[in-house]
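Team,

Forwarding the record for the chain on the shared tracking sheet. I've put the sequence and predicted structure together so nobody has to dig through attachments.
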Amino acid sequence: MVKTYDPKKVLVSLGSHMVTGYADGTFVNIAYNGEGIGTVVGADGEVSRYIDPDRTANVTITVKQTSPTVDFCQRMHDKDLVTGEGILPILIKDMRGGLIFSANDSWVVKPPDREYGKDIANREIVIACGATTTEGA
């Protein structure tokens, strides 16, 4: 069976804002903070495992400096600093039937580093997520 991946079919929304202007290469990275399922081996060799309840994650979105998402995330971060009301739901969906990642609560950790040069640069935006859910493969 042949499967097809199309990066144009990966959608990311931050509240009502649809992320656009993805950078070339990796443009979404989901890093889970918890340990998932851990293992502890006792002195007698007995193996036990535990399920880490931490379902939080950090999502790094890489866009071109010209993406409207840069300005949107800057505004949300500024709003959060002043009012504490910069929390948004996040949804990442592969429209071809792959992974669906979501969190009801997410926020911009800090504005992206900015550099300027002759060409268009990339901006990495780090989004912290509260309890996450994942469906699909």
